[in-house]
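Handout, section 3.2

Students often ask what a structure token actually looks like in practice. Rather than define it abstractly, here is a full record for DUF2459 domain-containing protein. The first block is the sequence as you would receive it.
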Amino acid sequence: MEKTRGSKSLLARGPALQWWVVLLLVPLVLVLSGCAGSKKWNYLPATRAEERSIYVIAHGWHAGIALSSEDLGEELGFVREYLRPGRYYEFGWGEAEFYQADKVTAPIFLKAVFWRNPSVMHVFSIPATPAEQFSGSDMVELKLSETGLKHLKDQLRASFKFDPVRHPYPLKGAPHRENRFFEARGYYLITHTCNTWTAKVLASGGVPMDTLFTLRSAGVMRQAKNAKRAYLKLRPSE
């Protein structure tokens, strides 16, 4: 997840992609990439007053999902205890060592690609609007119904690990509390990447997404843009 203007990207930052990374990923992407196909919107809002905005944001190889502070609700409001106040909060999921690494080395990358690994959640407190914070980034605003947003938040919450008294397990965080990692549920695999997770979360909210082999952030963003175009044709008039 990117932390520009106050924090650097956690997935796109670090050393430039080396030739060996490209050689490994290109055949995997060609074999495993998917598309939205004939999937359709679910949980459409009945009126425009019911619409709730979420943002899908690409950060290099990774795409995250941002919600307004007001929309965190009881499902996700616990993150405020671990982060500075924000207008929006962006959520991402990924391989534990790779995602938290200060420097991504070849062994770390190869382990993430070829092994079944633990995962972490990352939450970034955004002090501005997503458009202001991530100007120049590839971004899509999607409109969900209240029902769709509730399902999406339930899916996000289900990605966190909690102790018996329902507290999360906080991990590495930034000095000024602008971002924090947490222990997560599920294992990272080459067939279930951070972008597969993002597609599944979006699908839980009713967005038409392929959730099987969406491995790249480009696949997430392409489908999100297609979903937005489809929604504009279905959007309630008032």
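Discussion prompt for tutorial groups: The chain is about 35% helix and 20% strand. How would you have guessed this from the sequence alone?
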